[in-house]
Amino acid sequence: MRAAIIIAVLCSPLVAGTTDDAVPDERYVEYGRSFSTYTARISGIGGDGRRASASCTLLTPHWAITAAHVVHGCTDVIVTSGTLPRAAATVVVHPEWQRDVHGLHDLALVRCDEPLELDFFPALSDGDEHVGQVVSIAGYGLHGRLTEGHTTHDGRLRAGTQTIERFDRSLIVCHAHCGTSVLELCISPGDSGGPLFAGGRLAGVSSFTMARKGTALRSRQGEETAHTRVSLYLEWILGLVR
After folding, report:
1. pTM for this structure?
2. Which of 82, 123, 164, 191 could lock 141 by a disulfide, CB 3.0 to 4.6 Å apart?
3. Do 110 and 53 share a domain, yes or no?
4. For residue 8, is pLDDT > 50?
5. CATH code of the domain containing 181
6. How far is CA 101 from CA 98, 126, 226, 231, in A?
7. Does residue 85 have a pLDDT over 90?
8. Are 54 and 140 in contact (CB under 8 A)?
């Protein structure tokens, strides 16, 4: 990881990403509908007694994947697809994730005993994503414009695009700038655990944003977004969900 960065973990009460000022917001909401069947909300009660919400991706009728920091230490975890809530029976945080080390191995799998029967579940990437590739990102997080940062929360699913800038250890890193891609979007609080798709397959799980030291993080243009690279964890994921 670069030395001159600061990191913000993207988990907050239900409050989705910041979007290009030149593009109407409804285009992001409309694109979000493309991912709405398997991009779900996930919530849980934290140590402070409050319910917080983020995003997740349904992998099978019983299993969803999200970020470890979203569900670690939470009780009463609920996965909601559309208007269908399902109580989580099992939460499995990746064994190498450490609470005090943001951005590494930030994955968790959540099992619901009551199934969510969908017509389609996304395939997992085998790691063929590449630098310069345009990817799609979806989530239920805070909303705003890239020039000002996140400002509002309406609970709507939005999706947009970014371009892979580099790979950093177990992370896919993108750089948010207005006009860089067709529907440029930067992840915001509440987008944690949501999907990054490359070539139609789940390639990343949203984890955090970062910027040069001294810059306040608001999901604004110039910030970088980091997503845990799914292909590096296929053995662990498939060993549980199959």
Report:
1. 0.92
2. 191
3. yes
4. no
5. 2.40.10.10
6. 5, 26, 14, 21
7. yes
8. yes
